[in-house]
Write a structure and sequence with these properties.
This protein is about 40% helix and about 15% strand. A hairpin with a 2-residue loop joins strand 6 and strand 7. Helix 5 runs antiparallel to helix 11 and helix 7 crosses helix 8. The chain starts with a helix and ends in a 22-residue tail after the last helix. The C terminus is likely disordered.
Length: about 290
Amino acid sequence: TDAQVGAIVEAILQQLHGGGVGGGVSVPTTAFNGAAQPSAPPPAINPQFVPPPKSMHQELGDLPANSGVAVIAMRGSFCPVTLGHVRCFEEARTLLLGGTTPAGAYSYVAGFMSLNNDHHLRSKFAGKREKPLPFHQRRALLELGTAQLPWLNFSQQRSSQDVSRLAAQFPALTFHSFDMNGSDDVVKYQKYKWAGPARRMITMGRPGSTPKLLRGMQSCGMPEGGTPDFIVGPELPDISSTLARTASRKGDRATLLTLLHTDVAEWMLRKDGHGGPAEGVPEPQPGDSSHRR
């Protein structure tokens, strides 16, 4: 009521003129509805709250001028993407940030994963009873499995196009691109002969082919530790998509969780009839060419 409002204002004025204890302002606790109301407690702090990660573009924007950025690109079927695929990027990132290779140290590492098209997979799966995952599902699973790694994105472009785009958006930074492959692929096509300032490479060792890689490098006069244009990473366990698809069909959740990100594993199990519907992986949208950045 008007009387109650007047009483509150008068009390405040009296406190401002020295009537309050310690110089503070004391407002009557009688609310406008006539009921006494306790003061509201401060909002509780959630100790487990984790702020969402910044995007790659936000992180690049935070870098000081003249920072060196390594851009790692890898193309594959990723049917589906495995923990082994992601670990390749994590190991390469550690090497480049740490400056433990002939390439030196970089301030930031950006990773891009691109997919082989469905035609490539159909020929790869020819004669097999199983069918490959279509492009839109492989892409969605890739983004699902890397959602907490803002520096690692899906891309539909060539690595040179990704580098050109980033260089145009962040002209104060210096970008160097690296193509990443497994040692089996590098040995098969002798890709170590292609390495140079215009085509930098990172090769991850794989069981059975790492010694062949080192012998091939030696035949070209390369040191075992690599060069600034040809970086040799550690030998990593073979975590293949084939093993993951087999475990999923069998409903072997325990094995699948050692091969795939949890969300990717659960979707695969549902797709193969072990649980509810395979939700969370959207159908492709016409003309959709966007990707997380």
